[in-house]
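Re: beginner question about structure tokens

> Can someone show what the tokenized structure looks like for a real chain? I only ever see the sequence side.

Sure, here's an example I had lying around. Input first:
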Amino acid sequence: MASIQRLVSPLTGRVSYRVQVRLRGHSPQSGTFRNRKDAERWASSIESGIREGRHFPHALARRTSFAALGERYVRSVLADASPARRSNAGRHIAWWLDRLGNLSLAEITPDHIAQGRDALASQPYTRAKASQGKDGATVSAAYRRSGATVNRYLATLSHMFATAMREWRLIDRNPVADISKKKEARGRARFLRDEERDALLVACAHSTWPALHTLVLLAISTGARRGELIHLQWANVSLNALSPEATIQCTKNGDPRRLPLVGKALESLRALQTANGGASSFVFTSPSGVDKPYVGFDAHWYAALARAGIDDFRFRDLRHTCASYLAAQGSSLLEIADVLGHRTMAMVKRYSHLAEGHKAMVIARMVKERGL
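And the corresponding structure tokens:
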């Protein structure tokens, strides 16, 4: 029979539910879950599995290697995932396989995970092709993973074990649940001041890659990500409709998103379409003449930044610029999240201080209308 105990952490106040399943003639099974429904569902499954002779988690865990779990996870769970998720999760899984691949699931303890977490944070890695230095020697830039990156690796591993526990019944506990996450730095919120924006647009208009001006205008006015814009195709752009828009088919979270096209961005996009003349299916096509997106435009981007005299600015900050402008104009955080395509409000909290004026106006209007 199963018993469920409600636990409250004295340090964080976090509520969890500990389940114990005891049936005569069988070893007791236990697990901890974040909500009661998951706890009840797990307990019911364990009880029925034991009665039917299907539940032997320790034996299955000893017979199943972590490498086999990784292979099954990629084949089944990631099969229907977005390309971006498959790429990121695949990189994470490959790292963990290199470290834990020769162990069975029963042998992997929280200590193994904690050591892996610390190794991720401390080991340098390279993320660009090696280049030749002034002396002719090969040089590779070394980096260290941020706390946020380490936590993404842990999240992928945790989902693997959670799937093995809840769906495949290979283990009875997720070892990642006992591991603390790394502290994450506060999100960057660099955005263009009005004079910086004007200088950058002028510099982009004089770029040797003419489409850069359109790309930057779109990034500022729609808040779309670099990859979303670069892979945009003319087939997904409607310039002559009553409400011109572009549709991003493949986004970071997997949901298609419509981008309203207005103002100078719309004018510039129409001019770019005329110049393209149907030669390429991509809006921002490669100058080589091959029908593919121009992914490597960084040289033009950095040249424009230098010409405009702008320091400490990345292309991603154009997205922050859009959000900051929206907040300063009185848009709510919910509206900003909708424009940027965020599923949760957590990512737009960094702009909350810019929306304080709008919050005061909303409260003042309510007070006046209610006579308070």
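Each token stands for a local structural state, so reading them left to right follows the chain. The mean pLDDT is 84.
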